[in-house]
Design a protein that fits this description.
Blueprint lengths: L9 E4 L15 E9 L10 E17 L3 E6 L7 H4 L1 H14 L8 E8 L9 H16 L6 H16 L5 H8 L2 E5 L6 E4 L6 E4 L9 H14 L1 H23 L3 H17 L5 H12 L9
Parallel strand pairs: 4-5
Antiparallel strand pairs: 1-8, 2-3, 3-5, 3-6, 6-7
Length: 295
């Protein structure tokens, strides 16, 4: 979080709810995201705060004679990401097609992905891909779909990447804006947050391609091994996210920055950070960031 951010690599949390229709062709796009508070804790049904970024994945779909699926992946990506994630991406695409009842034995579906969002771990690249595909398929098949239905299709696709996703990434990719999100035993609960003033956030990547499902599994194993330890971390996190929501709505950037620092410290205790992420946080603080954390 920078009071005066450099222009490159910057996303701006909007003063108002992000209007996807005002950001270009709403049919084909799914937006990236930054989790402000709650990565990994959100799995355990506590609130998280997430912001969509302006960069997006877009998709074009062509329905042709024949059968099968052809995927043309022209997204910008860090080295090795698309190769390492190809099997998961293919499964995600197949799940979206299945959910939308697209029969690829009777027709050939060509999906071309592009856009400005760099595919890298942590930015919501998989969710933005799934949501953009759902939107493009809806147009290609002449289907009218609500945002809720697009979000549901994106969630089904995310299962190909993450097994049992939290739903936060596809929700940000679908609706945009700044959101408060919480899992429940049923459908997740989320609401948009309107800010009176904007703030700029610089984000950067280590370039490391990680498996979200593996990290979630590691956290679950640690929780099961020491329930008291995890409960103490969860309680502290709930205090941080409650204060973070108040600071965000009040546009109190000084308080928000300190809470971002505290959330990163909790991620370190949870062992989901790494030396490369910690190094980026340290570099951001040295460059003048008032607060910094992993996402």
């Amino acid at each position: 979080l920078f009071p005066q951010a450099p222009r490159r690599g910057v996303t701006r949390l909007p003063e108002n709810i992000l209007d996807i229709s005002a950001m270009g062709d709403k049919v084909h796009k799914g937006y990236g995201k930054l989790i402000l508070f709650g990565e990994h804790f959100v799995v355990y049904k506590v609130p998280a705060l997430v912001a969509a970024v302006a960069d997006y994945t877009d998709c074009k779909v062509s329905i042709q004679e024949g059968s099968g699926i052809e995927v043309i992946d022209d997204r910008p990506a860090v080295p090795g990401y698309k190769v390492e994630k190809k099997e998961e991406a293919d499964e995600a695409i197949a799940l979206v097609l299945k959910h939308m009842k697209i029969d690829t034995e009777k027709q050939r579906v060509v999906c071309t992905f592009g856009g400005s969002l760099t595919a890298v771990s942590g930015i919501g690249a998989s969710a933005s891909q799934c949501v953009s595909l759902a939107r493009a398929l809806a147009e290609a098949t002449g289907r009218s779909m609500t945002l809720e239905e697009i979000n549901e299709a994106g969630y089904e696709g995310e299962k190909g990447y993450h097994g049992t996703p939290s739903g936060i990434d596809n929700t940000a990719a679908t609706y945009g804006g700044v959101l408060r999100f919480q899992r429940t035993d049923g459908d997740p609960i989320f609401k948009t947050m309107k800010l009176d003033r904007g703030v700029e956030i610089v984000y950067a990547s280590t370039g490391i391609t990680a498996s979200t499902s593996k990290v979630v599994g590691d956290v679950r194993a640690k929780k099961e091994a020491d329930e008291a330890w995890f409960a103490a971390l969860l309680k502290e996190y709930e205090e941080v996210v409650a204060q973070g929501e108040k600071a965000l709505l009040a546009c109190d950037w000084g308080a928000l920055a300190g809470l971002l620092d505290r959330n990163h410290a909790l991620c370190q205790k949870l062992t989901v950070s790494c030396k490369e992420l910690d190094g980026l946080v340290d570099a951001a603080k040295a460059a003048g960031a008032t607060g910094a954390k992993m996402s």
